[in-house]
Amino acid sequence: MNPGARDYLLLTGGSLGVCLFVLLAKGGALPTFLVAVPGFLSLAVRWRVYPLVVLTLIGYLSVFPELFPMGWRTIPQEYLHFRILDIAITLAASAYIFGYFRMWGLRDAILPKLTSDVVVSEPHEGPRSEASIESTEYASFFLTILVAAAFALALWKTATYFDIRGDGFPLVTRDSREEPHISDTSLVMALFLGPIFGSVGFGIWYGRWSQLRPDIARQMLLDMAWAEQRREYSQRELWRAWGRGQLAKQEPFSIRIRTVFRILLFGAGGGLAITLMYIVLRLLIYIATKI
Amino acid sequence: MLLTARGWWVLVVASGLVLVGLLALRSITPVPSYLGLTLLAVLGWEGWQFQRRLRGAGERLRLDRELLQDGRSVPNLWVGTPTTMRLKVSNTGHQSLPFVRIVDRLPSRTTSTEPSSLDTRLAARGTATIEYSYQVDQPGRVCFEGCTVHITDLAGLFYSRQFLRVPVEYSVLPPLARHKSRQRRTKRFNALPPPGIHRLRRPGSGDELLDLREYRPGDAPKMIAWKASARRDLLITKELESDVPTRVTLLIDATHSARIGPPGQTPIIRFTDLAAAIAQATISNRDFVGMTLVEEDGVEVMAPARTKVHVLRLLHRLTAAASELPIPEAPDAETLARYAYPLAQELYPDHLTLSVNSRPLGLFWKPIADSRWRYLMFALFTVPMLYSQSWVLESLANISAIFAPTNSTWMLFAGLTLLPIVLAGLLWLFHGMRGFLPPHAKRKNRRKQLALLYTTLDHGQPIQIERYLHDDACFQRRTMEFLTTHRVALPLTIYDRTGRNQYRHLKKADYFAASLTRSMALARDTETFILFLEVLDHTETLAPLLTAIRAARARHHAVFVLLAWPVDVPRDWQPETLPVKLSQMVQEVLIRRVHAEFDVARQALTKAGAVVIVAEAKDSARLILDRLDRLQLQGGRR
Q1: Do A148 and B41 touch (CB under 8 A)?
Q2: Cα torsion for B412, B417, B420, B421, to the nearest 10°?
Q3: How far is A254 from chain B (nearest CA, A)?
Q4: Can you give the pLDDT at residue B636?
Q5: Most CB within 10 Å of its CB: which of A117, B131, B240, B552?
Q6: Which letter does DSSP use for residue A133 in this model?
């Protein structure tokens, strides 16, 4: 096995072990076993859905550690507070997920599969080569996970520390004796942050246009111009195609006469059909009134 | 989109955890939302890093290509000679890329003996170099369009593909030195080489005795034939033959009919190989070589010469002729789009992304007014006009009264009166919606994307896009040009429904005859003409060529005709006694036809005085040269 893949395999296995240990400490043997099966299978079998199954199971078992749902009222109060075990399982699960995909890249395939419409020069598939492994990537991996977990924790703590209420707008610090959860008003206010983030994202996206390559910029302008005048162009081209078709036809006189006859015949047939329909309807009405 | 499938999955699961954690479980446990937030934070950080690197480095890559032979940079490739291709991908940006896979795009039907890809980390201002050995086994031209750079993060959650487009074309020349040892052994070279080595029966300074004559004042004493003088008692002088160069003119069939065959084994490839060998062997004998290429729309003449520069020029022209592809009889627009779209995806990925090559929803709507159904819809819409006639409404009311209960009669009446409109509306809707379903949507998508790409490449106007969408002929023309530029071979239909070869060139024999006559008119002495001719399906049109060959033979020129035997037809073939399957019978008929065609052509050409050599695929150039030598020594007789 690729040494890099082996390192990540150890890392992923270790992370999974921490997850299992925490689950065992919080719940029982059965839920731990349920996570362990797909968890260790994911390391052996090449099926990328397994880690996501493990993740979902961890999420579920953090709510119901004994596997089966217990009544809402019987949930211990300490579950509402952050514990070291919660932080440990979050760190371990994150390391497991991202470590797993890195291992996948070194063991199976680093690049995604392309759609059938795209044909690129071989080799497209295949694992990442050993030569591309940098010694610093493990350190940066751990650092990223730690910083992300700290960031998420800070976000969570901030959201639970401050409360947004109608009487004390904008911010009121939560009483430490209250349950540390995010209130509805905080959630609603968080939704207002969406447009702000959206506007910032749009600004960044718009700013990127200044760095476009000339050919790409020209294509974008062409595309926009086409989209704006598409209907008019389409009509023009349809008429052009019609004219070209008429020119190409060049039917001889006999065929034109035949076409005229056909039209007359069609008209006569239509008239006859309408007359017949009229007679049938009258007949139906007559029968209906008699009945 | 930059997220890969696995990236999307992580995003979906993490977002799900956050949403469920915040909306449903926030008063129960913080773990799902915290775990989801952590995953989203990692994903967001990786995504931001990837975008930053892509902008700072991925879009600032530069490619340099070099062809090396024995450590030196060379401008051409040689058939069968391993050559090293060196690629340098430089990152001119200020960001590094943690993982890139660089894959060189090899020309079609060629292979490299070593991997032409590299996995590496590309540092800021750094360079990645790929070197691989490359060999081509057929003459022609090869085009290296550029290389694909796959950029991804280390977990494969984000991905981008770039194509560094730096097209470079190289000529693949036939081997230069292989036939230098083909110099004639019939005569030794002098220390001071004569202008040629061919005997001419005119007085000159050769070695062979031509005649004896009376001594004239001024004759060199060493030329006096003393024995003959003693016998006749009169001074007799020896006259020697001349050593002269001869001229060989190669007339090569470069029409589309000679370009048809299995890849790499077409008659034109065979002709190129043989013509190059003959030209080099001839020049090594200090003879002149000229060449006439008979092409689809005329001939191209290269005057005879015997310099090394001339050989190289001749080889370059031969390879250029060999590299051209036959142009098929305009396949339909959809077939062409199916060939062009994957190529465009590979070579122009940045021009086909959704952000720069949009696909508005209205594009996929199929307007009913453009179809035959418009008449039906028009008829349905005009039905309510009949309501102006009172008897129609009366009839509908009566029918409603008959078929519906009293309290819902008006509903049936309303339904019946509105039925045509509803039907017309449904027809319009279903017809329009069909455009959003496969295969219509896929076709439309392909065509629109290609149309915009062509317009961008041609610096065209926006209306050109719509023209490509509506005008099949225009789209076909441009797509054919696109495919030809990138050397994509399209499938050929050689025989039409009537069994006639679509690539038959009716004027080929005329062109050959005119070229032969022109060469004869310019000839000074007896010359050699070697015709490389593809005769399959052309035997009926050979008459002018036969006349020209007869004229050449009447002037004592030597005429050789080299016919390329089709690779996929056995030469020594015996008909099956009882073909069992239909496919066998068809195969037999075709083989019989090829044999018959060749027999007829050979008999006609031989009768006209030409020496016919049938070159099979297994015959090497050396073997053909031997046969030509032998036949030349026999005075052009078989």
Answers
A1: yes
A2: -110
A3: 25
A4: 45
A5: B552
A6: -
Burial of B13 per CB tally in 10 Å (0-12, 13-18, 19+)? buried
The residue-averaged pLDDT of B489-493 equals 81
- Using an 8 Å CB-CB cutoff, list chain A residues near B453: 219
* Phi, psi angle pair for B239, to nearest 5°: -115, 135
Quick one: CA torsion of B16, B22, B26, B29, rounded to 10 degrees?
40
Q: Check residue B638 and give its pLDDT.
A: 38
The answer to whether A121 and B148 are in contact (CB under 8 A) is yes
Q: Are B117 and B102 in contact (CB under 8 A)?
A: yes
What Rg do the C-alpha atoms of chain B give, in angstroms? Answer: 38
Q: What is the pLDDT of residues B133-190, one digit of tens each?
A: 888 888 888 889 999 999 999 988 999 988 999 999 998 888 765 544 555 555 554 4
Determine whether the interchain pair B103/A121 forms a contact, defined as Cβ–Cβ distance below 8 Å: yes
Please work out, in degrees rounded to the nearest 5, the angle formed at the alpha carbon of residue B227 by the alpha carbons of B223 and B232. 105
Provide the 10 A C-beta neighbour count for residue A250: 7
What is the DSSP code (8-state) at residue B437? S
> A with B: how many residue pairs have Cβ under 8 Å apart?
252
Identify the bridge partners of residue B131 per DSSP, sorted by sequence position.
Answer: B86
Which of B342, B345, B356 comes nearest A223 by C-beta? B356
Which residue in the set B42, B345, B469 is minimally distant from A94, CB to CB?
B42
Task: With beta carbons less than 8 A apart as the criterion, state whether A141 and B155 touch.
Answer: no
Q: Determine the residue of chain A that is closest to B105 in CA distance.
A: A121
Q: Cβ B148–A148 below 8 Å, yes or no?
A: no
Q: What is the mean pLDDT of chain B?
A: 85
Q: Find the mean pLDDT for residues A178-198.
A: 69
Nearest to A237 among B31, B157, B467 (CB): B467
Q: Output the pLDDT for position B452.
A: 96
Distant-in-sequence, close-in-space partners of B72: CB < 8 Å, separation ≥ 6: none
Nearest to B150 among A52, A111, A155 (CB): A111
CA separation for the pair A213, A196 (Å, rounded)? 29
- Concatenated DSSP letters for B390-430? HHHHHHHHHHHHHHS-GGGHHHHHHHHHHHHHHHHHHHHHH
Cα(B91)–Cα(A228) distance, rounded to whole angstroms?
38
With a CB cutoff of 8 Å and minimum separation 6, the contacts of A285 are B394, B395, B398
Residues from chain B that touch A59, judged by Cβ atoms under 8 A, are: 17, 20-21, 31-32, 35-36
Paired residues of B87 in beta bridges: B65, B130
- Which amino acid type is present at position B15? S
Nearest Cα neighbor of A110 from A4, A29, A204 is: A4
Question: For residue A58, what pLDDT is reported?
Answer: 86
What phi and psi values does residue B433 have, to the nearest 5 degrees?
-70, -20
Q: Which residues on chain A are in Cβ contact (under 8 Å) with B59?
A: 211, 213
What's residue B637's pLDDT? 41
Angle of helix B582-608 relative to helix B543-554, nearest 10 degrees, comes to: 30
Is B4 in contact with B158 (CB distance < 8 Å)? yes
- Which structure tokens are listed for B43? 């994903």
| Alpha carbon separation from B467 to B23, B332, B447, B463 (Å, rounded) | 52, 16, 11, 6
For residue B19, the chain A residue with the least C-alpha distance is A187
Give the sheet arrangement for strand B159-173, strand by strand. Answer: B77-78, B159-173, B140-152, B97-104, B117-122
Mutate to test the interface with A, among B8, B35, B468 (most CBs of A within 10 A): B35
